């Protein structure tokens, strides 16, 4: 019996899902076995998690089921979490799969590989700040976003009830967000959009004036990836909504219902959100592969790990510094998509015995959506001769196109365009907010 070439991809995020689609479409199942190992059953595009958290996006309608996707594109999906890698025997070790009550469904097992791609993404980095793990919520995945939304709705209901009983009551929902990057800024704006719509869904006495949001950034300004003028415009927009923006403020501790700053201020909140940086999963530091201080796998310009050419890494979990650059490629969705294309090409080349291509990163700029209120960003590339600051309708159009390109990357042109048409219909017929 012919032994199939087995390619194992661990992680079904933006890059991993695009990669297995390309590999499945290229090779099928005759002589190759393409396997995706993923700890979740469905995929939600990570840049949309702030909308899921605010209730503006119903993830049940926008998520991608791995089992149906693998059937369509000719790869296999294994539900499980990577525990370690046996490089000598070329096997990945999958941790035991437990039920909600702790009962073991599937024991620890191994999957062999001829080529391995690690695309396990990133998680929030608390930088060792005391109390963050116990007291702050994070938007690392669908579970975290759903948890935040449920707790937010509970507090909105509490305030609405207090106002109904006593119209003169000074009741508010207080949210403290640590981190002035794209996630923190977009979440703050999206929460005001959601709060303004709650009055149409049974909370008649609740509106955005009952929301108090504090955004804390340790750096000198929010949105450091954007030009200073656009960051200032975004801050002015947030402050006009009612967000209290604190820059140059370092957090030293998180306690129940409060954030403590280096200056001694205690900022209270019903909901505390940590969005102040990312790191790769700690498990990667135990694979006997070269990693950096935030657990990212260090890779060559071909995206092969430095200690094992049969193992590739891509996306947020890898540290890649292309030739001519002094800093690694930033952990962004656009980088993950570009890396997926390079890893696909290099897997084909390595199996054909041809030289591998070096990864070249094209920075297409950064865009930040302030919900329906505004969109700001910068575009880079030959089309505009370098960097171009954009805002308003043009920025909103470009921002919307990013999700369209993601759908096409993971579904192909036909289904991707069909889903875009379905999404247009859904925006008309479905509720503005997900309240359950």
Explain how this protein is built:
The chain has helices at 14-27, 49-54, 59-62, 66-73, 132-135, 142-165, 182-197, 228-241, 333-352, 393-411, 413-429; strands spanning 5-10, 32-38, 42-43, 64-65, 76-79, 82-86, 91-94, 97-98, 104-106, 109-112, 115-118, 123-124, 173-178, 211-217, 244-247, 251-255, 258-261, 266-268, 271-274, 278-279, 297-298, 304-305, 308-313, 318-319, 366-370, 374-381, 386-391. It is an alpha/beta fold. The chain folds into three domains: 5-122 and 280-352, FAD/NAD(P)-binding domain, CATH 3.50.50.60; 132-277, 3-Layer(bba) Sandwich (FAD/NAD(P)-binding domain), CATH 3.50.50.60; 366-429, no CATH class. It has a six-stranded mixed beta sheet with strand order 5-2-1-11-23-22. It is globular. It starts with a strand and ends in a 7-residue tail after the last helix. The model is unreliable at 379-391 and 428-436 (pLDDT under 50).
- Helix percentage range: 25-40%
Chain-averaged pLDDT? 85
Structural class designation: alpha/beta
Oligomer status:
single chain
Strand % is 25-35%
* CATH-defined topology of the largest domain: FAD/NAD(P)-binding domain
User: Got a strand count?
Assistant: 27
Identify the CATH homologous superfamily of the largest domain: FAD/NAD(P)-binding domain
Discrete helix count = 11
User: Any idea what the CATH architecture of the largest domain is?
Assistant: 3-Layer(bba) Sandwich
In the CATH scheme, the class of the largest domain would be Alpha Beta
